[in-house]
Amino acid sequence: MIDDWDGPDDPDNPRNWSLAKRAYHSAIPALFGFAVTFGTSVYSPSVSNVMEDLHVSRTGAILGLTIFTLGLGYGPVFSAPLSEKYGRKIVYMASAPIFMLFTLGSALSKNLAALLVCRLFAGLTGSPALAVGAGTNVDLFPPHTRAVTTSVFMIAPFLGPSLGPVIGGFAVQHKGWRWSQWSLLIITAAVFLAAIPMMETYKVEILRKRAKRRGLSSSLGETHISAKKAVMQNLVRPLHMLITESAVFFFSLYVAFAFGVLFLFFAAFPFVFQRPPYNMDTEQTGLLFLAIGVGASLGGVTGIVVDRHMYQKHHRHAVSSGKGYAAPEHRLYSAMIGSLGLPLGLFWFGWTAEKGMHWAIPAAAAIPFAWGNMCIFIAAVLYIVDVYGPLNGASAMAGNGILRYTLGGVFPLFTIQMYEKLGIGWATSLLGFVSVLMLPIPWIFYKYGPAIRRRSRYPTAM
Fold first, then answer.
1. Cβ partners under 8 Å of residue 436, min gap 6
2. Residue 66 and residue 120: Cα distance in Å, rounded?
3. Which residues of 141-173 are buried (b: 16+ CB within 10 A; e: fewer)?
4. Dist. CA 172–CA 193, nearest whole Å
5. Is the per-residue pLDDT at 294 higher than 70?
6. Is the N end or the C end of the chain the one with fewer CB atoms within 10 Å?
7. Which fold has domain 226-462?
8. What's the CA gap between 419 and 80, in Å, rounded?
């Protein structure tokens, strides 16, 4: 009977692989995450061209962004159970070609209905990279070293939206809107080829194959529930935790709002910078999104620095005191720091653009905003997984993902109307005021987290 590793030094255990091998297996999901999230924003420069080519309204054209983003949010409901039953690698290798086929369909679409259907299924089939990637990182690294890999893994999906408008802007201006989809197809194909040498990292699947090779029995995988029940469980439990667990609700709401504003910028930047006094073209506007990439990278670095100089100190103290890990609240330092970045960036952007200051000044405001966004996201992921453990933590993050991508998809739909009615300064300030209201969330959980955790309806891991 094989139900566990042969020992702590078992070479088949992914946590015992060489650092280079683990880095490769961590980098591939991150690159898939980059490609998929690149698919959200690479479409944004296409809106005007889609309006002209397919003869649709602006809102109809923006739906191409919204529907893809919603697919990313709800796709894990289907893909997560598959990874638990069949392993991580097959989900990556099976979903990516289907994602590329629907991206090809988007590029060849002759009407809005075909475009929206293809974009929806591209989002659904691209989402496993985001959902299963977190599981791959859990397979490869123990909890106390996970902050670094989580920070690096989260940078890639943030770089996707920041680089999408850059490449999409050049492609659309010179080749037309369909090349926004061709560029997505090319990038995904390159990542897919790089992923072919991947090995399986999921413990259950590795041990199941080992038992088969040795001609031994194994109880692993025998208790799998039906696919229908698995899908319901992966939808109902995340939504239940989102509603009933205060930690899940408030951090998901905070992260989802910040994510929604990030996607709102896909519509806000063209509205602001392609009009007087800036009068930029599509290429120039796309380049401005590099500021978001800079801010997200700085946020990832901040997460690593905070882990090295703050969290690890508490972790070592906890271990020396006979405890397994430091309290989850020590994961929240980067969120507390980053909570200041959101309102700073929003007020800065709104009023410098309203006054028509040099383009570099409002564009630079995206740096503190993206930095704060990234800091909050990293801390929220680490905190929730520490609190609820791998199983319920995954469900909590699935609920977070549903809300995050729902707001990310919906916010661009009302951006233009809000900016036209309120003006650049007050429209962005409205978002800034909401971010100020949410600013205390990580601070409150840092202080009252233990008491809140004791009232949880779900077992907490720490």
1. 343
2. 9
3. bebbebbebbbbbbbbbbbbbbbbbbbbbbbbb
4. 26
5. yes
6. N
7. Growth Hormone; Chain: A; (1.20.1250)
8. 38
The rounded distance, in Å, linking the Cα atoms of 56 and 69 is 20
Q: Where in the chain is the domain with CATH 1.20.1250.20?
A: 1-207, 226-462
Cα–Cα distance measured from residue 171 to residue 173, given in angstroms and rounded to the nearest whole number: 6
Q: Write out the two tokens for 305.
A: 């620095």
295 CA to centre of own chain: 15
pLDDT tens-digit readout, 410-446: 999 999 999 999 999 999 999 999 999 999 999 999 9
Tokens of 88: 């991580």
**Domain 1-207, CATH class in plain words:** mainly alpha
Cα(98)–Cα(101) distance, integer angstroms: 5
- The three-state secondary structure class of 92 is helix
Q: How far apart are CA 70 and CA 73, in angstroms?
A: 5
Find tokens 């910078």 and name the residue. Answer: 273
**What's the distance, CA 81 to chain centroid?**
19
Residue 386 — φ and ψ, nearest 5°? -65, -40
Cβ neighbours of residue 347 under 8 Å, at least 6 residues apart?
428, 429, 432
Give the span between the Cα atoms of 116 and 136, in whole angstroms.
31
Is pTM beyond 0.85? Reply is yes
- Mean per-residue pLDDT over the chain, rounded: 89
The helix/strand count (H/E) of the chain reads as 20, 0
Cβ partners under 8 Å of residue 327, min gap 6: 314, 318, 449, 450, 462
Three-state SS for 275? coil
State the average pLDDT over residues 258-286. Answer: 93
Task: Single out the residue of 404, 406, 292 nearest to residue 345, CA to CA.
Answer: 292
CA within 13 Å, CB half, 288: 28
Which is nearest to 258 in space by CA: 374, 423, 416, 402?
374
Integer Cα distance of 303 and 309 in angstroms: 10
C-alpha to C-alpha distance for 251 and 229, rounded to whole angstroms: 27
pLDDT average, residue stretch 386-404: 80
Which of 383, 353, 347 lies closest to 368 in space, CA to CA? 347
Per-position DSSP letters for 187-199, written without gaps between them: HHHHHHHHHTT--
